[in-house]
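Internal ticket - ligand job 234, fe (ii) ion:
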Amino acid sequence: MIFKQFFEPESSTYTYLLGCEETRQAVMIDTVGSEVDKYVAALQQHGLTLVFTLETHVHADHVTAAATLRERLGSKSVVHRDAGAQCGDVLVTDGVHLQVGTLDIEVRYTPGHTNGCVSYLVGDRIFTGDALLIDGCGRTDFQQGNAGQLYDSIHAKIFSLPEDTLIYPGHDYHGRTVSTVGHEKRENKRLGGQTSRAEFINIMANLKLAYPKQIDVALPANQACGQVVIKQSA
Ligand SMILES: [Fe+2]
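stdout (structure tokens):
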């Protein structure tokens, strides 16, 4: 498999490129609108055709490149059916497998950060978006977030995987690029060790986080796959 991790510093977002070496078909997970030229260059460099842009959820902190890539490269946008993104070309739900060349991509429904969150399992690695971060997790106070549901999602759909499964998150704010299921089960500050569901809900209720800077722009844009609606001024 061809694999590349991109980092967008403004929102500390990780984007992933996964390509099939045989058919040269590729997917990208959680693209960022400002980075399109880098993605196109990487795809060209490896001789890859972009088939799907996969969203782990409707993001509140950056605008997806899905619509731009669809326009430039003909890729199709994949989102969970409850994500509220009617612009999606392929609406998926738990247990769906996408086959792209030799890549088998399993959709695991992991709501709680938002009600439309999914993780994508590809071989020995899982792309968790904002559901599970390295030593943390996504906030649960916006976009139909629900701490109890997030706890259940992570335990049932991520912590149930083999301990050496690689975890590639949607963000990291400290330069860490990858973790494992075993590490997060033991060490995650919010969920690791013996943290109970009730303790986790209590932790999440007391984070006192600031209102997300980009949310008012990013949410409507991402519900349209990144097509920014320009309002005419009077
Ligand atoms: Fe998010």
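Auto-summary: The pocket of fe (ii) ion is lined by residues 57, 59-60, 113, 130, 138 (CB under 6 Å). The domain at 2-222 is CATH 3.60.15.10 (Metallo-beta-lactamase; Chain A).
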